[in-house]
Amino acid sequence: MNRVLLIKFGEIGLKGGNRRFFERVFIQRMKDALTGLPGELPWIKRTRGRFVLDLEHWPAGPVIERLGRVFGVVELAPALVVTAELGAISGAARQVLEEALAEYPAARAVRFRVASRRADKRFPVNSMELNRILGAHLLQSDRELKVDLHDPEITVEVEVREEGAYAYARTYPGPGGLPVGSSGKGILLLSGGIDSPVAGWMSLKRGLELEAVHFQSFPFTSERAQDKALDLARALAPWAGGTMRVHLAPFTAIQRSIRENCPGELGVTLMRRMMFRVAEALAGRAGAGALVTGENLGQVASQTLESLAVIAEASDLLVLRPLVGMDKTEIIDLARRIGTFDISARPYEDCCSLFVPRHPATRPRREAVARAEARLALPALLEQALAGVKTVDAAPR
């Protein structure tokens, strides 16, 4: 018997003619996730509908923890692999059942079932009959067991394949989605709030490689606000492949110029348009084809249809808004699950919280925005901001 990890995937298997490309990216992302663990990287091989990773010389816990943050993974199952013979399969099924039973009190009966799949039709016993044979064998255990097909506490799963048979009784969910880098590259406008890191996570899940830009307003914002944004990037880094590049862009001069020269009610609209211009320039340097924002339709004054349209016109790039169909409760729940909420809740304001008028325009007119921007030295302000950009590669601490 050898110990392996079965890696189950979903959408990748539906990709048709370009499936091999997605598989290559997927394998690379898994290797990236395992980099840093002691020893040489284990082999990862593909079998029909699965990838298999050798666990003979690797601790299962850290491997499962790291691969559980790789987009594309649907489920992870530490398994025993044996020859496709009934006696060997029975022994492996008993062993994985006994290991699973260790988590349950010995004084009561444990509900279980067997679920077999015969991918190799040359195996002489069909799935239903194999379930019956293995179930009868497992009932001979020293532990008190009860067959329950509808609500089992333990499911012993057996997959009979051409290269052998796999038995497992514990599984761990993955995030699903597509491997990072399989859908291109984008620039995430990363504030210190709740929404933008969640939008980044959702974009990563769709296979988008990300770099981030965070806008600073020293001395109006503190270094703690910058550290907060970098910590959000560090929280996203394990999902992004290990690190996330963050561009720290100075924004104070732009905000001052807007405040001094433009109508107050258009301040938010004009600031967002300048952020898009800076982000677009950084996207050109990074080879990115889209901007990603945490904007959500109707959540604040600058997120009406009219405002979103006028703001997006400042850039020629595609603007992705993954949160547009979510309400705030859903966003907060996801932020808690991915580990960004507590960081976002730190009481350090970012530049988006500054210079906000009491009554911002909810339906800004293009003509009014154009007249206001005519009062600004846009090329000089943009050049100044880009010249002051500092870049940090954020990795988990």
Q: What is the CATH superfamily classification of the largest domain?
A: HUPs
Proportion in helices: 25-40%
Number of helices: 13
Query: Which class of the largest domain in CATH terms?
Result: Alpha Beta
CATH topology of the largest domain, by name, is: Rossmann fold
As for the number of domains, it is 2
Shape: elongated
The biggest sheet amounts to: 9 strands, mixed
Low-confidence stretches are none
CATH architecture of the largest domain: 3-Layer(aba) Sandwich
Kindly report how far apart the N and C termini lie. Answer: 37 Å
- The radius of gyration computed from the alpha-carbon positions, rounded to a whole number of angstroms, is 26 Å
Mean pLDDT reading: 92
Order of helices and strands: EHEEHEHEHEEEEEHEHEHHEHEHHHHE
